[in-house]
Amino acid sequence: MSAVLKLENQTNKTISYNPATGEEIGRVENTTAEDVKAAVEKGRKAFSSWRETSFRERRGFIMKAREVILAEMDEIARLISDESGKPLAESLSMEIAPVLDLMQHFARNAEKLLAPRKINIGLYATLGRSSKIVYQPLGVIGIIPAWNYPFSIPMGEAVMALMAGNAVVLKPSELTPFIGLKIGEIFEKAGLPERVVQVVTGAGATGAALVEATPDKIMFTGSVVTGKKIAEAAAKNLTSVVLELGGKDPMIVFADANLELAAAAAVWGAFCNAGQSCSSVERLYVEELAAEKLTNLIVEKTKKLKLGKGSDETTDIGAMSSERQLKIVKDHISDFEKAGARVLTGGGSRDLFFEPTVISGAMNEMRAMQEETFGPTLPIAVFRTEEEAIKLANDSEFGLTASVWTKDLAKGKRVAEKIEAGTVCVNEVLYTHGIGQTPWGGFKNSGRGRTHGLEGLMELVQPQHIHVNRLAILPDAWWLPYGATAIETFKGFAKYFASGSPFQTSKLMPQLIRRIRELRRKS
Ligand code: NAD
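Above: the input record for the complex with nicotinamide-adenine-dinucleotide. Below: its predicted structure, written as tokens.
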């Protein structure tokens, strides 16, 4: 069979194909809506004992899961490459290695990151009260990822959810179901108690069933269109959702940048994973003075890239994941050409392989500079001033990541803070999803909420405020009944106590004593 449509939905089965060869990898059952609901209910039961485990015990399971991954690394990398099309090198460098780092980080540090936190309650403390926050797990976390990082994204989210004390139900993308099942198998081999991690399979309908089954939170990664559907469906049950959506990430290159390095970064940032990264360089803005030199360097480097099967060790650019994605890339390139931009190299395709394509003369008014392409294209536009570069970069509905290239670090940081994006790198590109310690998420239509980092961990818990009165011997002045003394006392609260000043508050003492005496008399 030719590498055409990767997915076929035959009655109740999802068929997974290798996008590079069109060969069938296997078939999985589409989990029925009732079984998805049952999985969430069983997950909730498993949660009731999992939440009681200590951080030490959880750390043990996650570190064991790391060992399973390390022992099966070659097999897992091959599966990722076969099912998603990406080069073996990227299965290792962009999926397995970063998630192993994330696993050790959260296994070792979740306890510290989620340690109870004392709150300074100001003058209330002088009344013998104290407050602290403890972080309670949420319950069952529903994970619905995309196909482009089918291992590292759901695996990382599952690990963070587990370390925070939650159970997980994962619905992998219909394009990469076997990688999802592998994640379930890894936890099973690590000895995780039954039902703490469950994997359900199928396409959008299974995902929708998972949302309907009212998990306690949904971690979604995918398109804006699906993100909106999920947010709407989840709102009916007040289920909260983290949305990791699309991007149209700009790279700004000033003339004083190391152009050789910037060109290499642009080529990797635009073409790794065949351009199918949410944080791909989708628009490059170069200062006019350096435009010709940078463009030539980029074209030269792009021409050296080798297309091939993901499983081949020497492949630089693998097959795209689906025909739908390939069609968008072709449409965008043809749009660019019609609007007057020029293809400098690439533009051709064979089956699901698309040549890395560099385009010059791009302008923000062109449709393909606004919509997410999610393919191996690198359109280059020119700017003249710092202000113009910022304006062009921000002229987008998206705001996931961005990068600024200059040797002047003060300028780099100044510009970075003016870019509307969840992550902005100076002299770096794309890779920070691989730093599990840092938050990941978008501004504008690129998403809501965060994964990774402390901010991402906080999405997986609910803060609980514990307030203690150590001097519970007298009634509080604000309790019932009220009367003239109460009114006078409350005015004193407003004037003195609410000032936050101990000195001012001391003026309230005689009135406070009168009020307490009154309360004791009347009680
Ligand atoms: P998609 O929206 O088509 O599908 C994503 C997931 O949602 C799949 O598992 C799918 O089965 C499921 N789904 C589809 N309809 C559903 C519904 N109605 N209810 C519940 N689940 C449903 O996206 P895709 O094509 O798999 O992924 C590509 C997109 O993902 C791109 O836009 C890319 O930028 C984005 N992405 C974002 C990030 C990020 O971190 N921001 C990371 C990777 C990918």
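Notes for the reader.
Residues 144-149, 171, 173-174, 203-204, 207-208, 211, 221-223, 226, 229-230, 244-247, 278, 372, 374, 400, 442, 446-447 surround nicotinamide-adenine-dinucleotide (CB under 6 Å).
Residues 88-113 form the longest helix (26 residues).
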